[in-house]
Amino acid sequence: MAGVAMMAGFGIACALLIWFFATPALLIGGLHLVTRLASGEWYQAHDFWTLYSRILTVWLAIHMTIWLVIWWLDRRKEKKREAKHADFMRLRKLFYRDNEVCLDSYETLKRRAGEL
Description:
The chain is an all-alpha fold. Helix content is 81%, strand content 0%.
């Protein structure tokens, strides 16, 4: 089973590499076709690597920005969850002993403490 997981991981890594590095090349290929259809002339291929590097830079920057925003939102949600849990444990200590089972919800404990 470990070999299957390693092959799956390799496949995912290859798919990510293709997604990140082949997509700008496909965009440039589309640009070649569109300019050929629009003007009858081929786009100058000697500028391919310059254009590829610029499109790749923008492409990767967009993905990194999206990942950063998702990470930041997830971190905010996690911090709120941790703060709520810490507050729940504080309220639990007010009304329950250490080894006693607490069946009250967070809102019930806040209401009992007079904080709601």
